[in-house]
Amino acid sequence: MLIRQILSKKISEKTTIIFIKTETMHQARIRAKKRDGADFDAQKFMLRLKEDREVLKKFKTNFDYLILNKKGKLKSVVSTIFNLTFLQPGS
Q1: Phi/psi zone of residue 90: left (φ > 0), alpha (ψ -120 to 50 degrees), beta?
Q2: How far is CA 41 from the centre of its chain?
Q3: How far apart are CA 86 and CA 88, in angstroms?
Q4: Per-domain residue ranges for the chain?
Q5: 83 against 9, higher pLDDT
Q6: Reported pTM
Q7: pLDDT at residue 2, as a whole number
């Protein structure tokens, strides 16, 4: 998994690492089913969810920010990420 490789290495101080998560596992499943439609695979979804949990648990101190991606608040999340990444001193 790419995120593990990135977080395992020494990271530049100019890098901002953000973990974006849904409010609940149920909400994540609803979104995945809506996005994937007939191609939704429950086993793949559960595997991805497990990997995400492991990454968050193992590397939680490496993330500069944890952003909660609330339903219906996409513009707010994008704005927050923009402000955190592009409006930081030295960026």
Answers
A1: left
A2: 20
A3: 6
A4: 13-86
A5: 83
A6: 0.68
A7: 63
